[in-house]
Amino acid sequence: MPLANQLKKGHVVEINNDPHIIGQISCQTPSARGGATLYKIRARNVLSGNKTDLSCKGDESFKEADYQKKPIQFLYRNGGNFCLMDLEDYSQFELAEETIEEEAQFLIEDMELTALIIDGVIRGIQLPETVSLRIIECDPGIKGASATARSKNAVVETGFNLQVPEYMENDEVIKIDTRTGKYLSRI
User: Is the pTM of this model over 0.90?
Assistant: First the structure.
């Protein structure tokens, strides 16, 4: 059973007897002596889609949810649905945008993912830890900008907005951490 201080984004645990996918975790360390570190957790109920916010101490334990994983591939977007393919039997299925709203900002065609299956039904997806996406729009670069200089806004091919170093230009491919949504490196 994982402890609160061991949880990471994407873990599936039981909260109030329902499976939840961990979405965000923040750590607050008190300045007073003897104060326990608090972990603020935002999780999404896999069955209903409702979000839950928790505050807990680092030594509180969570029960892992009963689920299976299966390799899948994102094919294309069909209106408000995402068409995916099972990589074992090549069957296709669709997931509603509400089901994978946070993960959708990193999906590109032909990307391989992992499906979370609970009670024989696909309830969510897990992204790879990093993705490579092309910048389609950013402010113009500044001549002489270095790698340690300030950052600027950029929009990647999926429509996701993030901060990149000032020297980045349109059409460059960058690596993004899907857990934090932050720029990692240029490819």
Answer: no
Q: Which domains does the chain have, with CATH numbers?
A: 4-64 (2.30.30.30), 68-126 (2.40.50.140), 130-186 (2.40.50.140)
CB 130 within 8 A of CB 175: yes
Greater confidence (162 vs 123) lies with 162
What are 57-74's pLDDT values in tens digits? 888 999 998 889 999 999
Enumerate the β-bridge partners of residue 4: none
In the chain, where do the E strands start and end?
12-15, 18-28, 38-45, 51-57, 63-64, 68-78, 81-86, 92-96, 112-118, 121-126, 130-138, 151-156, 161-165, 173-177, 182-186
In the numeric block, the tokens 């490819």 are attached to 187
Q: What is the spatial distance between Cα 26 and Cα 50, in angstroms, rounded to a whole number?
A: 19
For residue 68, which of 119, 18, 128, 7 has the smallest C-alpha distance? 119
C-alpha–C-alpha distance, residues 107 and 95, integer Å: 13
Tokens read off for 177: 């951490």
